[in-house]
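Incident log, support desk, overnight shift.

02:14 A customer reports that sequence design results differ from what the structure should imply. Their input is reproduced verbatim below. On-call engineer (initials T.W.) acknowledged and began investigating.
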């Protein structure tokens, strides 16, 4: 009995995993889908299709909401059911258990008209399965009814004349529009679709009353009368086909080129007709009535064994088949009709180029390694088969490929050796070519080193004034060509200029010089090295002393050497490039000079005396002293100085009773105000020395007067 139950379950529910049934079954007693106002069940609406079982349901809306109920055979053995996500539907309510009877969830289907292979995939969490999840599925078969009707204003047709009728359909996207003609029928037809409308094209081949059996097919199967099919109900339409008012002569060429020389003829084959005369010239006009526009002439040369006629066609004007038929006339009387395209000769009017991040330009110069877009504009470009010489990586933009314009995306090889990339059409060179130019793009100046006595330093690392406390014997500029070009990133020749300006300690101008042009080429390991113009490339270091008259080692303390290294914009395509300014200051820790000052009111104490002498008058001091500069400051003195010299005490007191006047040999220190711009200052002196007249050692302390002129 149990085996029979399992057999019946497998018969009605083939989507259930047999392995899962043996242990924790997910067998369903029933599956119910409620959509719109209808209800569909597995027991009543399951269908077999392509060797599988599906739950079918009908829909009207393209994005309907449906409610699904699952009735498991052993619901008590199922802990949880999860519906896996899919692009075909959106889960509105997740799977929930309703009592001990069934599970329920709600989804919104997405674009059922175009979705295929619709399926619900579930993860089943069963009792006693040690946490292992089983995946089960229910395949779905949504279908809808497509309604199509054909309304005719009249049913008269003429042999050789095509007519087009619109078919009224409610879901045009489900109609299979193959755009292919039927063959060998009394009335051949094809189905096309354009702008959301479906059209029936009819071309009769036999006269009298004819019935057209119009069979439309859908892109998705549907259920009709309990059967799965893709065929809509057959439409039978009666037509009255009349003999053509004019005999239609079909040409073997559907597209003929209009030559610039109207005397040049083109051989074509046309169908033979008993009224068609050989060795005769017929006019080709664009209308049946007299006075039509002359499109061309056709000369019937000879009849062939295959019931064709060899003719010579001379054309004078353009024509499109959509403009109407062409009429072959004997004089002003129409004899036959035909139709073919008369299109202009392929001609390129303009070639434009766009680089990454740039605009379209007529400049066809490109560089190795670049990715570019090429736009070709002209007439009858659909006849062309363009090829770019030496390029393999070419992409055609199919969206922008018309009779008047074609767009190509190209990658120029990094190692290309050609100077021109010719554009070919059908293996014939055109008048256009892409010109390969070598890059001459400014590179950051990190390939330039400077040595002013501290070793080579990249100039791009020198972004502030340099205080150099040694003698600058020379300034050497050297170059590293290997830093210019990188793999698939080319900069080419670097053309630089150097401005030199030398000023003194007080910023007075000493000398100005310029090195107008220096050319640095990438090194020989660069991919494009062989193609660069190397005739004026410099490989030697540059000693600035060779370009200035006042050599660097002759400059005084606190002189400034200012260098400005920049790209020459006019030789880099107007690109300003990079500029680096370097300022080297010849700094010192100390300075030695002779200073004359006027100490006044000095307090002196002679060794051996118990008291200070009375305040003296104005003295004269001539001191050879050392000055000390602040470190990392430009020519800024510390406030103290130390020196040795002579001091004339109370030198301006000439009275005979002056006992303080004397000449002393002193070691003296002084403190000066920190302001540098003061015209009058009062330094403080402290020291000791030897009085020559009194022959005594003494100490001194007191202010002085200093005038800064």
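02:41 Re-run completed on a clean worker. Output:
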């Amino acid at each position: 009995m149990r085996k029979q139950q399992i057999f019946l379950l497998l018969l009605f529910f083939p989507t259930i995993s047999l392995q899962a049934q043996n242990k924790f079954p997910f067998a369903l007693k029933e599956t119910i889908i409620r959509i719109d106002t209808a209800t569909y069940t597995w027991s009543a609406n399951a269908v077999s299709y392509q060797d599988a079982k599906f739950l079918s349901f009908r829909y009207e809306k393209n994005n309907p909401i449906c409610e699904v109920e699952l009735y498991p055979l052993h619901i008590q053995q199922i802990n949880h059911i999860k519906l896996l996500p899919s692009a075909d539907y959106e889960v509105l309510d997740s799977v929930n258990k309703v009592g001990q009877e069934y599970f329920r969830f709600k989804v919104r289907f997405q674009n059922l008209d175009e979705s295929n292979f619709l399926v619900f995939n579930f993860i089943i969490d069963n009792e006693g399965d040690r946490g292992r999840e089983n995946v089960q599925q229910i395949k779905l078969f949504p279908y809808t009814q497509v309604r199509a009707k054909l309304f005719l204003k009249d049913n008269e047709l003429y042999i050789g004349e095509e007519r087009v009728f619109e078919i009224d359909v409610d879901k045009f996207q489900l109609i299979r529009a193959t755009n292919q003609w039927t063959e060998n029928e009394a009335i051949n037809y094809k189905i096309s679709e354009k702008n959301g409308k479906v059209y029936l094209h009819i071309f009769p081949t036999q006269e009298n009353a004819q019935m057209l059996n119009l069979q439309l097919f859908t892109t998705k199967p549907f259920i009709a009368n309990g059967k799965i099919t893709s065929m809509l109900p057959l439409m039978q339409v009666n037509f009255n086909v009349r003999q053509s008012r004019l005999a239609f002569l079909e040409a073997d060429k559907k597209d003929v080129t209009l030559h610039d020389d109207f005397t040049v003829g083109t051989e074509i084959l046309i169908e033979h007709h008993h009224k068609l005369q050989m060795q005769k010239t017929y006019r080709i006009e664009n209308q049946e009535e007299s006075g039509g526009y002359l499109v061309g002439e056709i000369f019937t040369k000879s009849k062939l064994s295959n019931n064709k006629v060899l003719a010579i066609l001379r054309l004078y004007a353009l024509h499109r088949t959509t403009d109407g038929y062409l009429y072959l006339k004997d004089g002003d009387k129409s004899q036959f009709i035909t139709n073919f395209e008369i299109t202009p000769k392929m001609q390129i009017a303009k070639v434009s180029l766009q680089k990454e991040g740039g605009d379209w330009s007529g400049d066809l110069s490109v560089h190795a390694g670049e990715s570019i877009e090429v736009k070709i504009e002209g007439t009858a470009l659909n006849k062309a088969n363009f090829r770019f010489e030496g390029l393999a990586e070419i992409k055609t933009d199919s969206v922008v490929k018309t009779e008047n314009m074609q767009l190509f995306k190209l990658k120029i090889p990094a190692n290309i050796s050609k100077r021109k990339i010719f554009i070919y059409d059908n293996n014939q060179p055109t008048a256009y070519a892409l010109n390969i130019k070598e890059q001459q793009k400014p590179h950051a100046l990190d390939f330039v080193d400077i040595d002013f006595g501290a070793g080579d330093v990249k100039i791009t690392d020198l972004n502030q004034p340099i205080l150099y406390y040694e003698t600058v014997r020379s300034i050497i500029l050297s170059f590293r060509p290997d830093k210019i070009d990188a793999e698939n990133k080319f900069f080419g020749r670097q053309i630089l200029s150097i401005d030199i300006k030398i000023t003194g300690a007080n910023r007075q101008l000493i000398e100005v010089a310029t090195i107008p042009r220096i050319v640095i080429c990438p090194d020989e390991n660069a991919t494009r090295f062989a193609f660069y113009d190397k005739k004026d490339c410099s490989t030697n270091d540059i000693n600035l002393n060779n370009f200035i008259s006042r050599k660097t080692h002759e400059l005084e303390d606190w002189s400034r050497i200012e260098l400005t290294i920049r790209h020459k914009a006019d030789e880099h395509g107007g690109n300003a490039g990079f500029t680096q300014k370097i300022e080297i200051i010849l700094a010192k820790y100390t300075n030695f000079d002779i200073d004359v000052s006027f100490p006044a009111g000095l307090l002196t104490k002679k060794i051996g005396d118990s008291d200070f002498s009375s305040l003296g008058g104005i003295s004269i001091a001539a001191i050879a002293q050392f000055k000390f500069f602040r470190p990392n400051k430009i020519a800024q003195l510390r406030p103290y100085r130390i020196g040795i010299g002579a001091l004339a005490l109370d030198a301006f007191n000439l009275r005979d009773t002056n006992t303080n006047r004397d000449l002393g040999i002193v070691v003296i220190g002084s403190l000066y105000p920190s302001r540098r711009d003061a015209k009058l200052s009062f330094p403080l002196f402290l020291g000791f020395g030897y009085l020559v007249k009194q022959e005594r050692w003494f100490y001194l302390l007191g202010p002085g007067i200093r005038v800064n002129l």
